[in-house]
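Lab notebook, bench 4. Still working through the backlog of constructs that have no structural model yet. Next entry is a single chain of 254 residues. Request: give me the structure tokens for it.
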Amino acid sequence: MVKKIAFTAARQPRAQEALKRLKAKYANVPVSKADVIVALGGDGFMLRTLHRFMNQGVPIYGMNRGSVGFLLNNYSDKALKSRINKADAMAVQPLIMKATDTRGKKHTAIAINEVSLLRQTRLAAKINIQVDGIERMAGMICDGILVATPAGSTAYNLSAHGPIIPLGAGLLALTPICAFRPRKWGGALLPQDATVTFEILDPEKRKVSAVADYTEIRRVASVTVMEDRTRTITMLHDRDHNFEERILKEQFQP
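Model written out:
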């Protein structure tokens, strides 16, 4: 049973107004003492909240005070504790990105939605792709490529014409971004425990950046992406507005 709530909100007026109302109606405690974190904002703020508190082990219940709100529940200040207690829990496994830049410096970042590689200049990227140590594609010429989790498959991945992945499918999406060669390759579905390695060809000339959600590493030479099995993030969703149903609906949009 939820007794103690920690509230956090985006800077936008709608989110701040909601924060003020909820703090007046329900006691607000520090995250270290909370049973649940309530995040008020849009999808971007929810993503930042998941990153910020992923190591706290506290479930996060988001309410939409932004625009789209795909990751969030509908906003209401009524019977909040009852809603949270009745909510369904969804466990999310993030990705870990390990990148080496052209100077040999190593970087690590976490992604809940996707890891994407993007060309930095007018020149297309040229990339070799390995899956579990086996080269699957040599010299793909493209604007970029991404690896998406099921939770992130409806975000950038969907915009790049990647597949929507139902939660619990045990898959990751490997999706090209504006591929020039090979022209007709549409990407691949990989087991969730796959390790994907990207080698950038001629990285000093064909500069590429790697982005894990909103952490960007410039001028990468190689990038490895895999599921981070040391972290599990718990999101809470109202049963009549659950995330699995929203992902299913997205697959039938005209």
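Notes after review: The mean pLDDT is 94. Residues 97 and 249 are 30 Å apart (CA to CA). Flag for follow-up if needed.
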